[in-house]
Target: Storkhead-box protein 1
Amino acid sequence: MEKFLQIAPHSLAIVLSRVSTEEAAAVTEKLQHHHTGYEIFADFKAENMQHFWNKKVTDAISETFFLGWIDEHVLLIQGKEDHLEVLREGWTRRALKPPRGFEIKCIVKQTQQK
Model:
């Protein structure tokens, strides 16, 4: 019987890239020097709680939790699977906003690894 290692059940890895425009440079530098991964997660939530026209997105965002910040560009979040699916769908429709000073490169579902 094969064994699987559960990396993080019910989680998403949001791969971010720092924005390189001059306007975002000050925001990015401030985030880099004065903010933790949790604060970047809080900004991600705040940016996406503005979807008052899409209750599913605001409900999903409000029910996610900070799991980790890896290598200064991967935000790990955790939540119920149906909420994470709403976020994945929102990203494919370009409705999910990144934290200030970043852009979302991709979203990866974290499930199991051999």
Residues 22-34 form the longest helix (13 residues). Residues 1 and 73 are 36 Å apart (CA to CA). The two ends are 12 Å apart (CA to CA).
